Amino acid sequence: MSEVTSQDRSTRDSSQQDLDRLAELAEDVIRRARAAGASQAEVAASIDSGLSVNVRLGEVETVEHTRDRGFGLTVYFGQRKGSASTADLHPDSLQATLDQACAIARYTEEDPAAGLADPARMADAFPDLDTWHPWDIDTAQAIELGIAIEEAGRAHAGITNSDGACVQAGQGLSVYANSHGFVGRERGTRHSLSLSLIAGDDDGMQRDYWYDSVRAAGDFISARALGDKAAQRTLARVGARSLSTRQCPVLFAPELARGLIGHLLSAVSGGALYRQASFLLDHVGKPVMPAWLDINERPRLPRGQGSANFDAEGVATCDSALVEGGVLARYVLGSYSARKLGLASTGNAGGIHNLVVEPGSVDQSRHDFAGMLQRLGTGLLVTEVMGQGVSTITGDYSRGAAGFWVENGVIAYPVEEITIAANLRDMFAGIVAVGTDVDPRSHILTGSILLERMTVAGE
């Protein structure tokens, strides 16, 4: 990875000027929308750019440079709403977009829940969240890094093929502005490395991968470490077998444990609730998880994957409990869903920001991954799930899975072609432990999660 001085970077970094230009365009279009008769208006504008390089077997497969622009406008005539968007920032295109949004709004039905968020909720403080770290890497350097990652993985005995390595550098600028006078600017970078390998022979082949995702390239694990991890995961799956049908404890690896928390988010999000399509309808103030467990939103973590000073409607973000002492403390709402439910926005228009899963005030010993295997004892470690067998309406959960059978806290052998099933209500209530092995590559920050019991169906 190349080094560049802060002075060099500031000379080349035009992000602030680009943000200023987007903000000026947004404010101008909002003024024109008001002049055209709109009672309210909002604009979301963005510029995203990046480099993506794929290599396989030491050769370059693809190189892609991207630079995408977006300009979305929503106008309100009373409670009639119209939206239009364009990727062209030329004045004529922006005027056509405005004309189209206004025309749509004039012919739509009134929606009592439509409109901007409460002006009193607009963010007025914008601390630096350390999310802007452009990666000064060119195509040749990215290719070199991708080859180094793949070579590290392919050097392991037993690795027979490769699906390739990928190096991606990305950065994005966005402006949200509305007719309350709010103008919010955000800029962020996200970079990733990945490698997928194949092991085995004609009697059975296994594929697995590993990746890293960071805000700043200096936070990456080394090319060798990533290649080693991908190879170790792939080789560990060789000789996988099925299991007979049984009920047993199940440990979800950290990268899958965050998916369980994602199902909770789906069930407590406004859209599912006002449509009455959630098994957690009317559950605020009720226990949904063990009394020792807390889940907190921390939207302003420095360098966090989901850090933001305001949500997609300009509402200020703040630290807030989602689950406190096992009890569901609130829902996840933007202003529209909040109005549909007769509630207030939770500052989550556009999604959640940095959710942290951790034991609360009740004493709960925590373990690293090895300790979580010991806590599991004899049961199933899940490292992969597949399929879409999860119902937010009923909570029913049934998915294909692969992983490892564990005996007395030690991995015994790999397993595949199994199905794991239960109900999310029982799964959440049956959480036995959460590990300290937190996966930092997501906005959902959790370690491995041990469930008391699930049905495992195999042979």
UniProtKB/TrEMBL annotation:
Record-listed E.C. numbers: 3.4.24.-
Keywords: Hydrolase, Metalloprotease, Protease
Location of the Metalloprotease TldD/E central domain: 133-237
Pfam families noted in UniProt: PmbA_TldD_1st, PmbA_TldD_2nd, PmbA_TldD_3rd
GO terms of molecular function: metallopeptidase activity
Domain Metalloprotease TldD/E N-terminal, residue spans: 41-105
Entry superkingdom: Bacteria
Enzyme class: hydrolase
Metalloprotease TldD/E C-terminal domain boundaries: 245-458
InterPro entries noted in UniProt: Metalloprtase-TldD/E_C, Metalloprtase-TldD/E_cen_dom, Metalloprtase-TldD/E_N, PmbA, TldD/PmbA_N, TldD/PmbA_sf
Gene3D superfamilies with a match to the protein in the record: PmbA/TldD superfamily
SUPFAM superfamilies noted in UniProt: Putative modulator of DNA gyrase, PmbA/TldD
PANTHER family, per the entry: METALLOPROTEASE PMBA
Family affiliation: Belongs to the peptidase U62 family.
Protein name: Metalloprotease PmbA
Species: Rhodanobacter ginsenosidimutans
Source taxonomy: Bacteria, Pseudomonadati, Pseudomonadota, Gammaproteobacteria, Lysobacterales
